[in-house]
What does this fold into?
Amino acid sequence: MKRELVVVVDFGGQYNQLIARRVRDLNVYCEVVPFDKALQKVKETNPKGIIFTGGPASVYAESAPAIDKEIFELGIPVLGICYGAQLMAHLLGGKVKRPDFKEYGKIEFDVKETGGLFKNIDGKNICWMSHRDYIERLPNGFKITATTDMCPVAAMECADKKIYGLQFHPEVVHTPRGIDILRNFLYEICKVKGDWTMGSYLEEQLSLIKESVGDKKVLCGLSGGVDSSVAAVMVHRAIGNNLVCVFVDHGLLRKDEGDEVEKLFKNTYKMNFIRVNAASRFLSKLKGIDDPEKKRKIIGAEFIAVFDEEAKKLGTIDFLLQGTIYPDVIESGSGHSAVIKTHHNVGGLPKNMRLKLLEPLRLLFKDEVRRLGEELEIPRELVWRQPFPGPGLAVRCLGEVTEDKLKIIRESDAVLRQEIAKHKLEHAIWQYFTFLPNIRSVGVMGDERTYFHTVGIRAVTSTDAMTADWARIPYEILEKISSRIVGEVEGVNRVIYDITSKPPATIEWE
Ligand code: XMP
It folds into this structure.
């Protein structure tokens, strides 16, 4: 079956992946392609539509990302957003200008022409603007379809050639009718049917996996996280026990987590599942180490060593299953940024094993992986689990990692999670956990002086972990969590709450 495709041409804007996710939410498959490879991709795939994203450049800048005008001659509908619309105007003979004002934030726009992008949308609406340059003069054949007080061309179209431009961002939630505008582009202008659903993706992948794997064996490094779990359940459904899952328990998991993972995959799914209890190995490697980056490197290397040893015991294996997802695959045009933390995701590829890679999630965004998980009827607690770092509690245990300190983190974290669940806050908070800042302070319990550990609580709201804000957990709930931790967890006499956003802090303390 040939699936409908929309090509999202990446000009470097901050919302590029968001545009792609919105299109997919509207049941249309799309791929994000860097601007300099887009024309070739369009010619090869003949997509139903093309979307130009925003970007930080000005069309007049020397190295401004651009695209050959030929893209407008192929008869494929094009929608330009922000920089994408300015580039479109510039290439087609209009004029883009840098005014002495900046339009930023929630702005009212006035629809001048309904129909097209604005089918069933008229009058005044709110949109999200974030631009310096604007389109001053339209290219020939275009007409203005919306304006704002400051911006003469908030939207434009050349319906004959199916070319549309928006100065504002329909992909962000601050543009309430944005999703309807994108829907109009896809369904009214590109005339898609909308064949991208997780049900159809699952069916297609199951037969692809069966076909490519045949009766060969597949190895999976299962961490119990969302991606590796969804990938494993899907491949297990396709090839049964020719999938071997190795779960390396590095002893840095949350309370009872190792047992829960084992129970689910071994007992419920009846998978070919091997648990390696390697806690003491990891702890002895981490002895005396307090530098966060060194800890991450040791854990990453040890993980691969353990996984490698187990894999060698298994005899002939042909494929390695990996939970790679689409954001890891998208080629970005932007340069290198500084390494803040080395993310060693558990599940690294043993270099000396010559295995073929099986990556059934490689086309999916994280929210689609979760929807696929639901399609596969994986328990909701797992599918909607909060992110958990590969190096586990080691990066929440500041200074040297010891079993005593890990125990305090596990117990206090369990209390926090129980209270968050009890008050139904799991979905309102992106990530929440306790950590041990490695300080002791004086306290008084009963009539006794204590000199015990301080436990920190970190809870943040976020959409992608790139930026985050500290969660405003109600004081009464914080009070309950604090008194339960001090009362129930041995060796703790003080609880603190981290009220720093990211940036300048990060989510984890190490
Ligand atoms: P930071 O602390 O950088 O974290 O704000 C952003 C997100 O990444 C997770 N994180 C990690 N995940 N390996 C991982 O797989 C790591 O080494 C690692 N360090 C941080 C963190 O939990 C948050 O969701």
In short: Residues 6-189 form a domain with the Rossmann fold fold (CATH 3.40.50.880).
